[in-house]
Amino acid sequence: MASHQTYYVPAQSKWPIVGSVGLLVTVIGAGTMMNSSGQSGHLIFFTGALIIAYMMFGWFSHVIDESRQGLYSPQMDRSFRLGMGWFIFSEVMFFAAFFGALFYVRTLAGPWLGGAGDKVMTGELLWPNFEFAWPLMENPDPGRFQGPSEIISPWQLPLLNTIILISSSVTVTFAHHALRANKRKALQNWLLLTVVLGVVFLGFQIAEYVHAYRDLGLTLNSGIYGATFFMLTGFHGAHVTMGALILTIILIRVYKGHFTPEQHFGFEAAAWYWHFVDVVWVGLFIFVYIF
Question: pTM for this one?
Fold first, then answer.
């Protein structure tokens, strides 16, 4: 569809600034929620989330309009692919930091506090009676951080959610093949099924969180195990939510007749992102729930 064969330079845009402000407000709100018992943190956090939603709606609408006008050349397509690739790489580094914190606690900091290795004096001076084991059910300072009474079994909801996400990765791949074959009905059905699976995953994740807080004493305040568990699974859930919203927008565009077998990078970018969150979940299932 694109007939504009010169490099397209878009006009100045407010959306990067709006997105930066939204991210800043959201992070401030999240930090306030973790360190304050009041409601101000929740208000700040959801204000930032609304700003980000406004940015995404406005910016994506603008990009879609430009694409439908045929303004994008092959060079722009390559630029989009590079940009999406670097974005996913930054997300990989984001989760690598949290996985790194988990591994550091489990293999270095925790055993040191228990008196292992060349840091034996650390454990003797701080908590001489502390014995480290993972998952950490009894914290070094139980007076401040009460450990959980139980942990979540990986072979119930987590296993089911793993099957659901892996299945959704397969269905979005089938949708992509249907698009390349110009089978619009199959494309709609497979993509709709992908969105449904994503929503079901989030529903089970919420049910798991309610069970952890209400029945197991597993919370953000239950020590390092609870902190790493909710930081990793919580941020992943946020990414699944964003991915499901993106796929929903793509599904609406599919129903409107957007995308062709030759030009459909918007669909491909959403599929790349969805595959990414699926791979992260497999890592979570193995290293957070099982081991």
Answer: 0.88
